[in-house]
Design goal:
Order of helices and strands: HHEEEHEEEHHEEHEEEE
Radius of gyration: 30 Å
Number of helices: 6
Distance between the termini: 14 Å
Shape: elongated
Number of strands: 12
Strand content: 35-45%
Number of domains: 2
CATH architecture of the largest domain: 2-Layer Sandwich
Largest sheet: 6 strands, antiparallel
CATH class of the largest domain: Alpha Beta
């Protein structure tokens, strides 16, 4: 009875560098032999580069003033300026939405001369803000606008004291995962079968029937990193381009 240790040198020599690395063979390809049971278990991987087709971008306009009526007036004025600027940049009105105005009463410490002495006193003021949200399929249009918050602040004329414009990092999504899943799983399966055939032939055996197949989650990974993560949990939403990765493990009989 031959053992995996006897087959390993032959298998390593037979694997082409572009198909599998020796470390992959040791950790990923398992040859199991018994008197009446010869099997090979081999993983396969496929990766497809895609471009996000939907963007979600949020920004907040806020104003701080001592008088409540004044702070609400300034917020309405400056929020309208931002929306007008976005429309001028080509973003449709229907893709721009706004949330409820939030208000907060705050206090700050300031120095003031009282009776000839410089003392710290607590001064009340109001801060109100409103969230602006853009949901769009036109990633190429929204991305450059969202990436230049400083230009929005200047061009929209938000130059009054106490007015802030805070832009969040845009989130980019790929919404056609279901269409692509079958394709990348099929590619990963072909890759696994090819590796199994190479390994079986190198050991002097013949690849038999498929005994089982394990399909992992189809994942989305940043093209600039090594880790893949399932969508939507853990996905790198900051990347417009993404890698869709599928992993399968096939178990074949050996003849």
């Amino acid at each position: 009875m031959r053992t995996a240790s006897l087959l390993l040198p032959v298998l390593l020599a037979a694997c082409s560098p572009d198909l599998i690395r020796p470390t992959e063979l040791v950790t990923n390809a398992i040859i199991r032999t018994k008197t009446d049971d010869h099997t090979i278990r081999v993983p396969g991987t496929a990766k497809r580069r895609v471009r996000s087709d939907f963007v979600l971008w949020r920004a907040r306009v806020s104003v701080a003033r001592a008088e409540l009526t004044e702070v609400y007036r300034l917020l309405a004025t400056n929020f309208a300026k931002v929306k007008d600027y976005l429309r001028k940049r080509g973003i449709p009105e229907g893709e721009i939405s706004s949330a409820t105005v939030e208000s907060e009463e705050r206090y700050k410490s300031v120095q003031k001369t009282i009776g000839g002495k410089l003392e710290w006193i607590s001064v009340r003021y109001f801060q109100v803000s409103q969230l602006l949200e853009i949901r769009s399929k036109n990633v190429g249009l929204v991305a450059p606008v969202a990436g230049d918050a400083a230009q929005i602040y200047v061009s929209a004329g938000l130059n009054e004291a106490g007015v802030r414009f805070d832009s969040q990092t845009p989130q980019y999504y790929f919404t056609r995962m279901e269409e692509l899943k079958v394709e990348v799983i099929a590619e990963a399966t072909k890759h696994a079968k090819l590796r199994a055939e190479r390994l079986a032939n190198a050991s002097g055996a013949k690849l038999g029937r498929l005994l089982s197949a394990q399909v992992g989650d189809v994942q989305i990974a940043s093209p600039y990193g090594s880790a893949a993560s399932s969508q939507p949990v853990g996905e790198d939403f900051s990347s417009i381009e993404k890698d869709v990765v599928a992993n399968v493990t096939l178990l074949f009989a050996l003849q």
